[in-house]
Amino acid sequence: MESQITEKALKLMEITNWKLCNHCLGRKFSRIIEGEDNKNRGKYVRKVISKSDYSALDKDSCYVCGNIFEDVENGIIDKITNKIAEEEIEFETFLIGCRVLPEIMVREEEIHKSMELDVENIKKEINREIGKKLASELQKKVDFEYPDIIITLDFVKDKIYHQINPIFIEGRYRKLIRGIPQTKWPCRKCRGKGCPGCDYTGQMYSESVEELISAVPLDLFKGKGSKFHGAGREDIDVKMLGNGRPFVLEIKEPQFRNLNLETLKEKINKHAQGKVEVSDLKITGRKRKGIIKNSSKDTYKVYRAIVETEDEINEDKLVELKSLDIINQRTPKRVSHRRADKIRTRKVRQVCAKIINSTRFEMVVECEGGLYIKELISSDEGRTSPSVSEIIGRKAVCVQLDVLEVHIKI
Fold first, then answer.
1. Among residues 235, 237, 298, 380, which one is catalytic?
2. Which CATH class for the 167-293 domain?
3. Of the candidates 241, 364, 240, which has an alpha carbon nearest to the alpha carbon of residue 304?
């Protein structure tokens, strides 16, 4: 083994003019020499060469890295911790990245090619060594998948950058009044710029479920923005009742991350003043927002509708509504400007109806997510079939609608 190491080391010396630090030397032997790190592997190789009567490697001026590891080992951790302290960033997990001079990467790649080496590059070692030191210093964990913060060391400009990843809060909301949209609705005339028509607010409506929920977390987490992801949406004139609709609130670049969620819930509900109410708050992962947002086909929903008919209706006719099953629904006219024009097939699982008066009845529908209930009732000029109007033989319209339950299977 030592003869193989000596032979390989001598070739390295010839290429680098005997100028390699222990890190850059040991990295070339990482697959054949055991050890806790490349620095110690480099020390071992020096001893092997010394036994073979070859002069020790000059560690004062590394051909590959230009002694960048001196910065890694001396002072860089203090610079990072000082910057974090100045910014008052709260985090539990982190990941290190770095930028080095292009010449360093070129020199190393040339060595790897000429000696046919399949070993990690210098940036991976720098990231790992700093990560180990910082984890020990701050008692935090390295997370390669989704860290709270990414710290980038720019050795070219001698700067430290950081990227704070969003925090995701999952929960359910109830909308207890009519007349507010789920998310911000830019003014149709000025497209959010501000005009006389929207009183220069840039919005069609003065408030939304999104704004009522996000205002408090944005303030408490000291975030720089937010984004609301709901499991479908109800119309502006529809209440969301029952145990609420699932949502994920994304808080961008939060300065703080560790807050009591029960306290947060209470503050949000107090701020919303009975218009919106949240529950079941929990911290979740990035992937969950996509699952929630695209869950329509994997949900069933329960609606309560007040239906008004053009002609009188009786209980016998309402019994026929139980025949509603597979619905073919072309994109409704009222949403055709923002939805693809296609026919969707959805299943009605159950229908219950009761008379209110001679031209009005209440209907509770349990169905697959994505079914437009107002059009299920009116038929939308035949675009939805079968429909309530079609089955009872009378023109019918939905005059009031509430969502009673949103059930996600995933």
1. 235
2. alpha beta
3. 364
